[in-house]
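<goal> How does this chain fold?
<body> The protein record starts here
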Amino acid sequence: MSQEAMSELAREEIKQEAVRRAEERARIARWDLDVAVFLFVVLIIVLILLFQGFGIGIVAPVALFGLVMVWIVGWRRGRQLYRSFYDEELFRLEREKKEAEEQEKRERKVEKTIAETIEETVQRALRERWK
């Protein structure tokens, strides 16, 4: 497999991991305090309407409207958070990959230097022995 193909494969894996992490974070953060407060306001309005003697024909649409609004707000918030988290995770994963590659290059350079040093030491010892 060519270096370019491997790089493209690694890039796709990074994107998939970023998608997974972003979806998870967005799903968790979707129901924030604002949505919870709005849901409690709808519940309070429904309770007030029931205690004031309004019929189910009026209370049910109000409750349904409130639940639909909570769902829409949560869904929109989740989409916004997903995009933000996706960009963040993609940047983080690419940076981690780049750091890992740099670390690997440094390790190879050290190994090469050690190998060269060992080789030079052995050659010097052989030269001294032959003298």
